[in-house]
Amino acid sequence: MKTKGAILRNPGEKWQIEEFDLGDPVAGEVQVKLVSSGLCHSDHHLRTGDSPAPMPVLGGHEGAGIVHKVGPGVTNFKEGDHVVTAFIPACGVCEPCSRGDQNICDEGARLLTGLSIADDTHRAHTSDGLGLAQMCLLGTFAPYITVNQASLIKIEDDIPLQQAALLGCGVATGWGSAVEIGGTHAGDVVVVVGIGGVGINAVQGAAQAGARIVAAVDPVPFKRQMAEKLGATHTFESMEEALPVIGEISWGKMANTTILTVGEIDGSMIQPALSLTGKGGQVVVVGMGNFASMDAQMNLFELTLLQKRVQGGIFGGASPRTQVPNLLQEYRAGKLNLSDLVTNTYRLDQINEAYDDMLSGNNIRGMIVYGDDDY
């Protein structure tokens, strides 16, 4: 079929809305008619060149929609099912999946190849015949996607699909960074640095897990206000500003967990985060930096003698096929706020404006909403 999407031909260029050819699902694949797509900072890393990807690339990795077609051998999905995309595929049979670590499924090694899991070919092609890589094997900056069934999670029909898209990346990653990989317990002190689409959900997760102090750090006043609305007990403009106050209100114990959810991380942020973290605590690194960066500054004396940890985290350290249904239960129980996460919605052809808004700090999360004329 012919459809349209936001395509990046070369790093440094703007997203271009182009018509492209999308193939029908082959064995093990599903075609989805999307309702919405979140606008995550990770896609902007393609544009800056910080994240390597074959070009041209169809952006987007956070979406929700309705199954349009199913390929041969697909038994878990049928036409009309409501689904959320998972930016890490979960095959269910590799070693990480078998031990419950679906968020680091071996099929994730394909994420930056753009080649389908089913047959190592492109399912999408540009109008001039080039193979079109799909961001995270998804490419949700288009109203239709053809993806492997390992990249989809079925959800109940009563969940609003426009909001459900957020579960595919920002909500699951943020909540899990505090609750799953962060291990927040009642009475903990948690600091979240960077209040965007991921960080705001780390705030929500830490608050719901019972942390007595949830400190949100961001230079943008609007984001600090939103953090307070969704569970933060304290807010700060910077880690330097937060440091003496966290020391005072924690009686010198500092944070159990400091979570770095900034949009663009660099090595200079690690030591300030470690300084905010108490003995035996951890710094959870969620934000992405340049793929070639090897520089992280930290005091090794402090790291060893105070038994601190620096822990990477992807998809919140949780398995998407358990995390997303669990989060939906939190939503039904009124413990997870989805409605306030989207600051502004956009049409597909407004994508560059949307990313300008993100970079200017105007959005917690921007979202593309597809209309009848997109299909």
UniProtKB/TrEMBL annotation:
Reaction(s) the record says it catalyses: a primary alcohol + NAD(+) = an aldehyde + NADH + H(+); a secondary alcohol + NAD(+) = a ketone + NADH + H(+)
Organism superkingdom: Bacteria
Organism (species): Gordonia prachuapensis
Annotated ranges, domain Enoyl reductase (ER): 12-370
Gene3D superfamilies in UniProt: Medium-chain alcohol dehydrogenases, catalytic domain (3.90.180.10), NAD(P)-binding Rossmann-like Domain (3.40.50.720)
Catalytic activity, EC: 1.1.1.1
PROSITE patterns reported in the protein's UniProt record: ADH_ZINC
Family named by the database record: Belongs to the zinc-containing alcohol dehydrogenase family.
Keyword match Cell cycle: no
GO function term, MF aspect, one: oxidoreductase activity
Pfam families per record: ADH_N, ADH_zinc_N
Swiss-Prot/TrEMBL cofactor(s): Zn(2+)
Keywords associated with the record: Metal-binding, NAD, Oxidoreductase, Zinc
EC main group: oxidoreductase
Alphabetized InterPro entries for the sequence: ADH-like_C, ADH-like_N, ADH_Zn_actinomycetes, ADH_Zn_CS, ER, GroES-like_sf, NAD(P)-bd_dom_sf
Protein name, per record: alcohol dehydrogenase
